[in-house]
Amino acid sequence: MRLVLLGAPGAGKGTQAKKLIDKFGIPQISTGDILRKAVADGTPLGKEAKIIMDKGELVPDSVVIGLVKERLAQDDCKNGYILDGFPRNTAQAEELDKVLSEMNAPLDVALSVDVDKNDLMKRLTGRRTCKGCQQMFNIHFSPPKKDGVCDKCGGELYQRDDDKEETIKNRLDVYEKSTAPLIDYYSNKGILKSVEGVGSIDDIFNKICSILGS
């Protein structure tokens, strides 16, 4: 199964991706991971990306697409894969489709994990992290027994900067502007499947498996 996973920050894509990996025995493809490995291995595209990154610039789509193409050609992707965090916009989606067409291996499904924006705000702004053991809590959904204190080690809980309301709003705005249009793109191609990302992790996963027909 060749699958693209879509959804806003906080929708739970990463959690569901791990369960899909275990069920189907296919790799999760992250462009961040691909980029870091290519740079570390010193591949031609990795060297090109490093020069750009060292200047503090964004790696262009052409390089990212090249890295994705190389990764998808590897043996562990023969039975499928899960693309998470890529494509980020319709331009990247169009380039990806060209690459997959050349490989004669088009996408099977674009799976969107849908969560209401207010729920996303609660999930993300409600997160608290232990300074000691890094255990995470949520003041709305899974609060600690004692306010501000970690159940696990007794350490102090704090709110990370990237979990603060203004930062979260910005992240969700970026998603709406650039990534959300992918929903329409894949819907028009007839491969979009949607699941409501509300409920227990297992409940959501069972719904996904039902949607995927497995």
Written overview of the protein:
The structure is a single chain. The protein has 214 residues and is of the alpha/beta class. The protein has helices at residues 13-24, 31-41, 44-54, 61-72, 90-102, 117-125, 165-179, 181-188, 201-212; strands spanning 2-6, 28-29, 81-84, 109-114, 127-130, 136-138, 157-158, 192-196. It has a 5-stranded parallel sheet, with helices on both faces. A 3-stranded antiparallel sheet has the order 6-5-7. β5 and β6 (136-138) form a beta hairpin. α2 crosses α3 and α2 crosses α4. The longest helix has 15 residues, at 165-179. The N and C termini lie close together (11 Å). The mean pLDDT is 92.
Mean pLDDT: 92
SSE succession: EHEHHHEHEHEEEHHEH
**How many β-strands, per DSSP?**
8
**Strand count, sense and closure of the main sheet?**
5 strands, parallel
The helix tally amounts to 9
Taking pLDDT < 50 over at least 5 consecutive residues as the criterion, the unreliable ranges are none
Structural class determined from secondary elements: alpha/beta
Rg for CA atoms: 19 Å
Task: Output the strand order for the largest sheet.
Answer: 2-3-1-4-8
Instruction: Report how far the terminal alpha carbons are from each other.
Output: 11 Å
Q: Assign a percent range to the helix content.
A: 40-55%
Structural shape = globular
Binned strand content: 5-15%
Identify the notable features of this structure and list them briefly.
14% strand; 8 strands; single chain; 5-stranded parallel β-sheet; 3-stranded antiparallel β-sheet; 48% helix; 214 residues; alpha/beta
